[in-house]
Amino acid sequence: MTTFDKIYTVTSISHLIPVKLDLSKLNYGHWKKLFTTHYSGFDVLKFILGPSTGEEKATDEWAKADAVVLTWIFNIISEPLLEPVLNSELTTSNDAWVFLETLFKDNKLSKTMELNAELKGLEIRDQTVKEYF
Distance between CA atoms of 96 and 70, rounded to whole angstroms? Predict the structure, then answer.
């Protein structure tokens, strides 16, 4: 029995994590919480956070298990996000994790500015207060 046997028992986790990561929904915080909680249970956070030693990453066993974890990531992101992830030069689940985290962190400021501008442009006109809010 190998260290990673538990990983190989699950081919897809989309039914276990009810939220697909979606840039238009800005749901990274919820997705990350569900994702890391689930991954803690499978003891695979070391894959998305990166191996503790170079020797660990160099093993065939690590590479095979990491490929499964990377596939899990592919299964729980929206199609619009999947395209840039697949087109980038990601080779590990850690690469994908960092790519997605960076994408969402970089998007926060621009989305905040966009929403602030939209809010400033709102006018009540003939709407009720309830409709306005």
Answer: 7
